[in-house]
Specification:
This protein is α/β, with parallel strands linked by helices. The chain folds into two domains: about 5-205, no CATH class; about 240-580, 3-Layer(aba) Sandwich (Alkaline Phosphatase, subunit A). Helices cover about 45% and strands about 10% of the residues. The chain has a six-stranded mixed β-sheet, with helices on both faces. A four-stranded antiparallel β-sheet has the order 12-13-14-15, covered by helices on one side. Helix 1 runs antiparallel to helix 2 (about 30-50), helix 3 (about 55-85) packs antiparallel against helix 5 and helix 17 runs parallel beside helix 19. It is globular and about 85 Å long.
Length: about 650
């Protein structure tokens, strides 16, 4: 049998792995042409590498290349499966603890073992057909031809970037101007994305604003004509013209122009409603609206159906808990590079929860019932304004049992006496009892085992029942909190706000749908949840506008009458008349009109648009600019720069 050149195997290896990435990760066939075009130089370079030695050396090189590529592509699949994101090497700067839970990873690998086998296919074929491949070093002439072909095809690839270069997510913009992991992989394939990612991590990268002001987009018309009133806005006096005139950095200058030209959100009938009241803000591990049940979690049910009820709220996954925390406490969008800069640069975040309230005389306290250094919280809590911060390792271990998994109930009961007399206060809790894995065993989830009697007879699968058992702990912690506030006589003067950090992403979509009252998809609707905003003295207010985690902070600032400039926060007050928008890590979005994903807009029932393409283009520009603004606000410490 005639032997074939190693280049044929290498072509199969790269193109096969890229195909699996499109099937299992991006789940999109878009970008096939660019992926093929940019893969050819990679294949040719690998071919040159496998011709550097004699036969034995080339065989070893081929196996090494195969193992490295297969491991990396398989790793990216599992990273995306776990975090709904493509891994960036920026994550190495922030994931000091994120992958400690080996049992969760092991469980996901076992559930997807057939995918692992598919990824291993090239190496299996290489072993089987090893003797049918010609590993002999090729002639110097052919090597030279291969080298020249690599350069020529590379030049052609770069020239092709100019096709439709003005689209927001064009290949040109993704290659030169925009840092979007998912969009880049979808357009160029995983290897080209990785090359760009490493280059940007090593040498730095600045995203560029697509336009210098947000386009006007339509709002859903109100059923009743509002009364004619002179509007006032959540903004402060900032001399942007002077700042722009004295600035030489083009990135900062463009941001200042953008802020100057943006519209502030309007003050409204709810502005200052909670002025002077205490605030307890809870970032609840794994909480989602599927856990809300009048019988199983009655306190969560009560709080999510009273006070402000947000009917179209989303908690998008951005790299696990740290991404959910960043969204809710800063009003900015997190990416892996942004989260890395947040922890590394420790910028001033003037409008973050603690920083916004302490100038008003509030005491600011942060509590976490797990390792206090987890996700570098010993640094980030200070950037949020919580210089008084306690977790396991710097005091919490003296109050509760910090063995895995600690109890939210214990944390609430032991910490409430520490601050209840120091009114007004803003207290921030990061809970952990709802953490995966969702199983009944002491090593995996002692909280699920603790509450098994409440769920064992429910008509759900074991994983789902274990998840509900963990949320029962949160429910009882809230009950204890309300009882403690009432006993102290400060319940009516305290507002409780709660959001989940992310949906329980170790559950499969089928398991999520066991509890959902409608069929959810695994991309957008799986992130739909509650934003609990409750006070014992207010009447129920239902809000149908779309909102998400980044809107939590500005909504609270408006309700508490905090003076702030809404132009400087990418999230918007949900109670204002600004159109609603929820933004996801892959740059998909949900607006009041519909859901946009994979290049298609699905309008909500009863909604129409005069020009769909223009609307998509405008929202895409807004979305991309909010990513860019979030990145550069942190990178350039813009709040310190503008508000000093």
């Amino acid at each position: 049998m005639k032997k074939f050149r190693i280049i044929f195997y290498l072509s199969f290896l790269i193109l096969y792995l890229e195909a699996l990435t499109k099937i299992f990760v991006t789940k999109s066939i878009s970008g096939i042409f660019s992926t093929l075009l940019f893969s050819i130089p990679i294949i040719l370079i690998l071919y040159l590498l496998t011709n550097l030695f004699k036969k034995k050396g080339n065989i070893i090189t081929t196996y090494i290349i195969s193992f490295i590529f297969i491991f990396y592509y398989c790793f990216q699949f599992f990273f995306h499966k776990l975090f709904s994101s493509i891994f960036s090497f920026n994550t190495l700067n922030l994931a000091n603890n994120a992958l400690d839970f080996a049992n969760i990873i092991f469980d996901i690998v076992i559930k997807n073992i057939w995918v692992v086998i598919l990824y291993l296919l090239p190496i299996i074929l290489l072993i089987i057909f090893h003797h049918h491949i010609n590993f002999e070093r090729t002639s110097l002439k052919k090597i030279l031809i291969c080298f020249i072909a690599t350069i020529l095809i590379w030049i052609i690839s770069l020239l092709c970037l100019n096709i439709n270069k003005n689209d927001t997510y064009s290949a040109y913009n993704l290659y030169y101007n925009i840092n979007s992991e998912s969009k880049t992989v979808e357009t160029f394939g995983l290897f080209t994305y990785t090359r760009l990612d490493i280059k940007r991590v090593l040498f730095g990268f600045e995203e560029k604003l697509t336009i210098n002001e947000e386009p006007d987009v339509p709002s859903i018309p109100e059923e009743e004509e509002p009364e004619e009133v002179v509007p006032t806005y959540n903004e402060i006096a900032i001399d942007f013209d002077a700042l722009i005139a004295n600035e030489t950095n083009i990135t900062i200058k463009n941001m200042l122009e953008y802020f100057k030209n943006s519209d502030a959100t309007n003050k409204n009938e709810y502005t200052g409603m909670f002025k002077g009241k205490n605030l307890i803000f809870i970032l609840a591990e794994g909480f989602n609206m599927i856990a809300v049940d009048p019988e199983i979690t009655p306190t969560l049910y009560k709080l999510s159906h009273e006070g402000f009820v947000f009917n179209n709220f989303y908690s998008p996954v951005f790299l696990s808990t740290t991404g959910g925390e960043f969204q809710a406490t800063t009003g900015l969008i997190p990416t892996q590079s942004i989260l890395s800069d947040w922890k590394k640069l420790e910028p001033t975040i003037s409008y973050a929860l603690g920083n916004a309230f302490t100038p008003l005389g509030y005491t600011a306290n942060g509590y976490h019932n797990w390792t206090y250094t987890y996700y570098s919280r010993q640094k980030t809590m200070e950037t949020l304004g919580f210089t008084s911060y306690m977790g396991c390792g710097n005091g919490m271990e003296d109050l509760i049992n910090c063995s895995w998994l600690p109890s939210d109930i214990d944390m609430i009961n032991q910490t409430l006496p520490l601050y209840q007399d120091n009114t007004p206060f803003v207290t921030y809790y990061v809970t952990v009892s709802g953490h995966a894995p969702y199983a009944y065993n002491s090593t995996g989830n002692s909280i699920a085992l603790k509450n098994i009697q409440y769920v064992k007879d429910l008509p759900y699968s074991n994983n789902v029942k274990a998840y509900l058992a963990t949320q029962i702990e949160l429910d009882k912690a809230l009950e204890a909190l309300i009882d403690g506030l009432e006993a102290k006589g400060i319940l009516e003067d305290t507002v409780i706000a709660l959001v989940g950090d992310h949906y329980p992403y170790t559950l499969t979509i089928d398991e999520v749908n066991e509890l959902s009252d409608y069929e959810r998809d695994e991309k957008i609707e799986v992130n739909r949840s509650n934003f609990i905003l409750w006070n014992s003295e207010i009447e129920t207010v239902e809000v149908d506008k779309v909102g998400s985690q980044i809107d939590v902070l500005p909504t609270l600032l408006n309700l508490f009458g905090v003076e702030y400039d809404s132009r400087l926060i990418v999230g918007k007050d949900i109670l204002s008349d600004t159109p609603g928008l929820a933004i996801f890590s892959d740059h998909s979005w949900v607006s009041d009109y519909g859901t946009y994903t994979k290049g298609n807009l699905t309008l909500k029932e009863g909604q129409t648009l005069e020009n769909v393409e223009e609307y998509i283009r405008d929202i895409n520009q807004i979305v991309q600019n909010r990513f860019t603004l979030s990145a550069n606000i942190i990178k350039y410490n813009m709040y310190e720069y503008i508000l000093k």
